[in-house]
Fold:
Amino acid sequence: MSSSLLDVAFAHHVWATLRVIDACLARSAEELKTNVPGTRGPMLETLRHIVAGDTEDLYILTGDRAFDIDVEHVSLAEARVVMERNGSGWAEFLSPSLNPDAIVREVDKTDGYERWAPVGFRLAAALDHGTDHRSQICTALTTLGVEPPAIDVYSFGLDTRRVVEKLPDA
Structure:
């Protein structure tokens, strides 16, 4: 049983990111430089950006220095390990007693820029960020002639046995 309604959403977020990373692990260094117009940039940089955003969100929300790391230059295999750890971080952070209206303060270490936003908003932004960029990487994979992994919520449900499907009787 989930401890929070958000558990499944963040479990999907981590699972989908890991599936995209796994699909990219089989690509050459040259293929990982694929950049499709209208997307954030090369696949490898975008994957690092997803994982970096996730760790930054966890650091801002939890204050846990274990999430205060620079992942912008890690290998894809290292990014995968970080994302797996993020999954545990999200599971620990989310709870039924979480106050979605509590205000979180973010301070950019490089220039002192500050932002205040409710926890609920930060959580929605984390999910949106991952979804947007995973889609862009899947688009880039298709330009290479590679079938992108199924990362939709129902594929996650089937893979984790949270969803069961049955064809109608003939």
In short: Strands lie at 103-107, 114-118.
